[in-house]
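Q&A log
Question type: sequence-to-structure
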Amino acid sequence: MLRCVRTTIRVDDELLREAKKLAAATGRTLAAVVEDALREALSRRPAERRGEPVRLRTFRGRGLLPGVDLDDSASLRDLMDRSP
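Response status: OK
Response body:
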């Protein structure tokens, strides 16, 4: 069984208009058009190269800022958009 999830993405206005036109012209849903485009883009990517693991530097801090919920991507995005 195919599992689908709902998500929110930002898309350029003109690109969205074109995708909606294509969906209407082909009798498909906007979601189907976006899924097909994503599948096509992913199929063209080069083979994954495995290199040495990257070691990330970490710095001391006080943890997450108040109000940050890493499980809530929408509010996290809004918080990042407000940051200077």
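Response note: The mean pLDDT is 85.
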